[in-house]
Specification:
- There is one protein chain.
- The chain is mostly helical.
- It is 71% helix and 0% strand.
- It contains ten helices and no strands.
- Helix 4 packs parallel to helix 8 (116-139).
- The longest helix has 24 residues, at 3-26.
- It is elongated and about 60 Å long.
- The protein has a domain at 59-196: Tetracycline Repressor, domain 2, CATH 1.10.357.
Length: 215
């Protein structure tokens, strides 16, 4: 990493804290410059305006999250642990810091309006890596998509789209992680190589939960 890269990263960290504290609209470039320990003119030499800084910050955080998710995906673990763990890692780095801010809703809206293009590029990169991992797992016999009539890419897109509903329902980051794990277990069970019920295996009655789980 060059000195210039380190300087930009320091600005991103400072800007993230300021945006989280004050929100996008109430934050001024002078606030970010002060938090980064530099002059306002020096900050303007690096970024044209607040919008461009926010856009680059969002792309930086997303790529950081994707890189960490890819590392998590490469662990020597069963497929469900790797796949769900990678998504949890991505959300922990990219989504959760924003979600816990009192201005989270505003920051998410701003991100969707001024950083949509870069977010799409990053999202496509993430979906591509997750789908590739599932394709490799299918070749190794860890998963099968034959009975769900979805390609690995379509499966990943459906999974990631479903996370939006989990985010809306969650009451905290801890609750979000819990719900995401639960959803992940259900999704992964649908492509398990041993999905087919063995002949003669007991079948749970429709509409009944296993009472033992609540004891």
């Amino acid at each position: 990493m060059t000195a210039q890269d380190s300087k930009r990263e320091a600005v991103f960290e400072a800007a993230a804290d300021v945006f989280s504290t004050y929100g996008f609209r109430r934050t001024a470039m002078s606030d970010i410059a002060k938090a980064a320990g530099m002059s306002r003119p020096a900050l303007y030499l690096m970024f044209t305006n607040k919008e461009s800084l926010f856009r680059e910050l969002a792309a930086f955080r997303q790529n950081q999250a994707i890189d960490e998710a890819i590392i998590r995906l490469a662990r020597d673990e069963p497929l469900p642990a790797r796949f769900i763990g990678a998504i949890l890692t991505y959300e922990k780095v990219f989504y959760e810091p924003v979600a816990q801010s009192p201005h989270g809703a505003e920051l998410i809206d701003i991100n969707q309006s001024i950083a949509a293009d870069s977010m799409k590029v990053g999202r496509d990169r993430l979906l591509g890596r997750l789908a590739a991992a599932l394709e490799e797992a299918e070749v190794r016999g860890e998963a099968t998509f034959a009975h769900i009539l979805l390609t690995p890419r379509a499966y990943v897109e459906l999974f990631m789209a479903s996370i939006n509903g989990v985010k809306k329902a969650a009451t905290s980051n801890k609750d979000f992680r819990r719900r995401l794990r639960q959803m992940g277990v259900i999704f992964m069970a649908s492509i398990a190589a041993s999905f087919d019920r063995p002949e003669g295996a007991p079948r749970r009655e429709a509409g009944r939960a296993d009472e033992r789980e609540d004891e």
